[in-house]
Amino acid sequence: MKPAHVSRRHFIRATALGAAASLTHAEPPPPELPPLLTPDLDFYDVSRGTPKPHTLAGEALTQARLTPETWRCEITADAFIEDPHTKVPATLEKPRTLADGNALDLPMLMELGKKHEVHFLKAMQCLNIDTPLGQGLWSGVPLREVLKLCGRMSNVRRIYFWGYHNDDPRQVFKSSVSYTQCFETAPGDLPVFLAYRLNGAPLSLERGGPVRMIVPWSHGYKSIKWLRHIFITNDPRNNDTYASGNNDPDSFLKTAAYVDKALDGRKIPVGQPVFITGQVISGLSGVKHVEYWLRRVEGGPQALADDDPELLNAPWKPCQLETQPQWTTVLPKGVNPRQVLAFDVHNGTPLSWPPRYGMCSYYAMVSDLKPGRYEARARSVDLNGFAQPEPRPLQKTGKNGIQVRRFEIVS
Ligand SMILES: Nc1nc2c(c(=O)[nH]1)N[C@H]1C(S)=C(S)[C@@H](COP(=O)(O)O)O[C@H]1N2
Ligand SMILES: [Mo]
Question: What values do phi and psi take at 242, rounded to 5?
């Protein structure tokens, strides 16, 4: 996408809104939208463990090696074989262990960052929670560069990793990627990386600092916080913590529109416009547009399945996507938009909008509603033309059901 095209589109959009506003002078400006970069501590926190690792302090925190000075990550190889899954074990020329005093530490990782640092704008989304957790600019070093510190390796088919878990094996939260996903990133595509900064500042303890894994294309469960062990194995099986929860542990982020809860239960005086707002995540299949549907209802709430003919044949209307910002003013100082993965290296704007595996806000304004009860729904349509939640028959690869908010117009 060329910059001239982007700015022209924005110009048209702004003018169209402006013209509408001047015709009916009572119309309010577009609603205030949340920031594109969620502040670190405003993320919705999804952490297991008792106590939660980020509540540790003082001596306990140091013991857990969760301060920048004490952080260490071991890198070892799986010495076991298990017929028929593995016939020869994985090997690593130079494992990195606490016992040998050569485990990966923060200065080593930052040193690698001088040459290999990557930045990625990622929406964090739990596979099992129907609201985005936040979006940030994550910075760090690709996992493949870190593994190169261990010399020659052989018979590796999967890379497991896990975080601090109160030294209680039952609390371990672990995940994995395949050898190919780790090492064979297409040029300009998205590598798995060890993140040490979020929005330009050191990663907070709550977000998984000092160092967390980021798997750009996946739901949050792959992005292990308080990273402390990387384990290469010749076992091709996925042993993610989420695999045991009946999820698809190799799924991708889903294209999905979420509707803000603020509309729920509101009583809006007749004559006042209604804003439907929310956020849309661009998953594997991208976003073509977001659309909404208002349904007038009598009495109490009634469920409507996502494949109900009434819903499928409803008069869905287009929403506006938030316009792109001036990226240089939004990104942290020192991060050039042209260096951000999935941004155009020439003009510094995302290759798609919203960026792939990122999100932006959308909104629609409705006026002239008659008094009564209403249901507001929104859904995304992906670049294949599939309306949410298609094409999946099940939700175990990530929530993207159609959300509903109920409000009333009162006279
Ligand atoms: N060590 C560890 N990493 C973890 C988790 C955890 O409980 N422990 N939760 C995971 C899940 S299920 C999600 S959705 C994300 C949430 O990230 P956030 O708390 O930064 O929003 O972290 C992931 N990483
Ligand atoms: Mo999650």
Answer: -70, -20
